[in-house]
C-alpha cells in the first residue's frame, strides 16, 4: 500500500478541514495516510527561565513519516512550509506545498487547485526541486546546547534590536572579520527573499551554491553583504557583555551568552519540493514581490534605418 503524508496548520480552520477531506480521499483510493500538525516543526522560543530549548534535528520527524513515504502535502502558509521542511528533510520526503495563507512564496499551488495537483502527483507528473538547508548549532565550550535545520536564515541580535552588537566572524579558513551592527543574518538562497532582502542583501536564485552574510544596520560604510560558497562554514563569536538572541526561520531560537559560539554549515539534508511545472523563479519574484514590473511607460519602438 503506497504511503502519503499530510502536514497542516491546525490554527487555520480551512487547512484543518481540507486535511481531513484529503485524507479521506487518499484513503479511499488505497493510500496509507499519516497526518500531523506543522506545530511539530516549530522548535519554540526560549525564555529567561528556559534559555535553551534543545530538540535534536532528527527528533522532529513525525510518527509514520519515513523514506518510504512517496510524498507529503503541506497545507498552510510559508511558516508551515518552513516547519514541514524540518520535519521531513531528514527522510527526503517530497513536499507539495499548498497555500492557505497570504504570501505563499514557497508554495506550489492554491487550495482551489489541490484536486488537479494531487492527480498529477499520483501520476508522477512533476519535477523535484531541491533547496539547500543549513545546520545551525550553538556551542558552549565543546557541548552543543541547541541545534536546528534552517531553510531561510539565522538571525543573531541583541534585545532590544536597536542596541549595537559586536561580532567576530570567521568564514571557512579565512581570516576573521569584526562587524559592529544591530545584528547579523546568515541566509540561504531561499532566504535571500526574506529577512536578508529587507536588510539590504541581494536576491539569489535557488540553484546557486552560495550562502550570504548580511549585517543588520551596520555601524560602518565598509560592512556590506557578503556572498560566499556554501562549502564554507561560518563561526560567530559575540563580543558583548550581554546575552544575544538567535532566531532560526523566524520561529525557533535560544539565548546566546558571551562565552557561546554559533556555528553554521550546509546541511547534509535538503528540502525536496514538488514542482508541477518547471520552476520559474523570476515569475515568482514578479508575482509576489513586484520585481521587474514596469514603473514608467516604455518608449515607442522606432524602426532603425
UniProtKB/TrEMBL annotation:
<keyword id="KW-0808">Transferase</keyword>
<dbReference type="InterPro" id="IPR017438">
    <property type="entry name" value="ATP-NAD_kinase_N"/>
</dbReference>
<keyword id="KW-0067">ATP-binding</keyword>
<dbReference type="InterPro" id="IPR016064">
    <property type="entry name" value="NAD/diacylglycerol_kinase_sf"/>
</dbReference>
<dbReference type="GO" id="GO:0051287">
    <property type="term" value="F:NAD binding"/>
</dbReference>
<feature type="binding site">
    <location>
        <begin position="152"/>
        <end position="153"/>
    </location>
    <ligand>
        <name>NAD(+)</name>
    </ligand>
</feature>
<dbReference type="GO" id="GO:0019674">
    <property type="term" value="P:NAD+ metabolic process"/>
</dbReference>
<dbReference type="GO" id="GO:0046872">
    <property type="term" value="F:metal ion binding"/>
</dbReference>
<feature type="binding site">
    <location>
        <position position="182"/>
    </location>
    <ligand>
        <name>NAD(+)</name>
    </ligand>
</feature>
<keyword id="KW-0547">Nucleotide-binding</keyword>
<dbReference type="GO" id="GO:0005524">
    <property type="term" value="F:ATP binding"/>
</dbReference>
<feature type="binding site">
    <location>
        <begin position="193"/>
        <end position="198"/>
    </location>
    <ligand>
        <name>NAD(+)</name>
    </ligand>
</feature>
<keyword id="KW-0418">Kinase</keyword>
<dbReference type="InterPro" id="IPR017437">
    <property type="entry name" value="ATP-NAD_kinase_PpnK-typ_C"/>
</dbReference>
<comment type="similarity">
    <text>Belongs to the NAD kinase family.</text>
</comment>
<feature type="active site" description="Proton acceptor">
    <location>
        <position position="78"/>
    </location>
</feature>
<keyword id="KW-0520">NAD</keyword>
<dbReference type="GO" id="GO:0005737">
    <property type="term" value="C:cytoplasm"/>
</dbReference>
<protein>
    <recommendedName>
        <fullName>NAD kinase</fullName>
        <ecNumber>2.7.1.23</ecNumber>
    </recommendedName>
</protein>
<dbReference type="GO" id="GO:0003951">
    <property type="term" value="F:NAD+ kinase activity"/>
</dbReference>
<feature type="binding site">
    <location>
        <position position="251"/>
    </location>
    <ligand>
        <name>NAD(+)</name>
    </ligand>
</feature>
<comment type="function">
    <text>Involved in the regulation of the intracellular balance of NAD and NADP, and is a key enzyme in the biosynthesis of NADP. Catalyzes specifically the phosphorylation on 2'-hydroxyl of the adenosine moiety of NAD to yield NADP.</text>
</comment>
<feature type="binding site">
    <location>
        <begin position="78"/>
        <end position="79"/>
    </location>
    <ligand>
        <name>NAD(+)</name>
    </ligand>
</feature>
<keyword id="KW-0521">NADP</keyword>
<dbReference type="Pfam" id="PF20143">
    <property type="entry name" value="NAD_kinase_C"/>
</dbReference>
<dbReference type="GO" id="GO:0006741">
    <property type="term" value="P:NADP+ biosynthetic process"/>
</dbReference>
<keyword id="KW-0963">Cytoplasm</keyword>
<dbReference type="Pfam" id="PF01513">
    <property type="entry name" value="NAD_kinase"/>
</dbReference>
<dbReference type="InterPro" id="IPR002504">
    <property type="entry name" value="NADK"/>
</dbReference>
Amino acid at each position: 500500500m503506497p504511503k502519503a503524508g499530510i502536514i497542516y496548520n491546525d490554527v487555520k480552520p480551512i487547512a484543518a478541514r481540507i486535511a481531513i477531506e484529503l485524507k479521506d480521499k487518499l484513503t479511499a483510493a488505497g493510500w496509507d495516510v499519516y497526518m500531523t500538525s506543522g506545530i511539530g516543526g516549530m522548535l519554540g522560543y526560549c525564555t529567561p527561565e528556559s534559555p535553551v530549548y534543545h530538540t535534536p534535528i532528527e527528533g522532529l520527524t513525525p510518527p509514520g513519516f519515513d523514506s518510504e513515504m512517496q510524498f507529503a502535502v503541506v497545507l498552510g502558509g510559508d511558516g508551515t512550509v518552513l516547519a514541514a521542511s524540518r520535519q521531513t528533510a531528514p527522510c527526503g520526503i517530497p513536499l507539495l506545498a499548498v497555500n492557505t495563507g497570504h504570501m505563499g512564496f514557497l508554495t506550489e499551488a492554491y487550495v482551489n487547485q489541490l484536486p488537479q495537483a494531487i492527480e498529477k502527483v499520483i501520476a508522477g507528473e512533476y519535477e523535484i526541486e531541491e533547496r539547500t538547508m543549513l545546520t545551525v548549532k550553538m556551542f558552549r565550550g565543546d557541548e552543543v546546547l541547541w541545534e536546528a535545520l534552517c531553510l531561510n536564515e539565522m538571525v543573531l541580535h541583541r534585545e532590544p534590536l536597536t542596541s549595537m552588537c559586536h561580532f567576530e566572524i570567521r568564514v571557512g579558513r579565512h581570516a576573521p572579520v569584526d562587524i559592529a551592527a544591530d545584528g547579523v543574518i546568515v541566509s540561504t538562497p531561499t532566504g535571500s527573499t526574506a529577512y536578508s532582502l529587507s536588510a539590504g542583501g541581494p536576491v539569489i536564485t535557488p540553484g546557486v551554491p552560495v550562502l550570504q552574510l548580511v549585517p543588520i544596520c551596520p555601524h560602518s560604510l565598509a560592512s556590506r553583504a557578503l556572498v560566499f560558497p556554501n562549502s564554507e562554514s561560518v563561526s560567530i563569536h559575540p563580543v558583548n557583555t550581554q546575552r544575544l538572541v538567535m532566531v532560526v526561520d523566524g520561529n525557533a531560537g535560544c539565548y546566546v551568552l558571551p562565552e557561546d559560539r554559533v556555528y553554521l554549515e550546509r546541511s547534509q539534508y535538503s528540502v525536496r519540493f514538488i514542482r508541477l511545472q518547471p520552476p520559474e523563479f523570476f515569475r515568482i519574484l514578479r508575482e509576489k514581490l513586484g520585481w521587474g514590473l514596469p514603473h514608467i511607460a516604455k518608449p515607442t519602438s522606432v524602426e532603425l534605418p
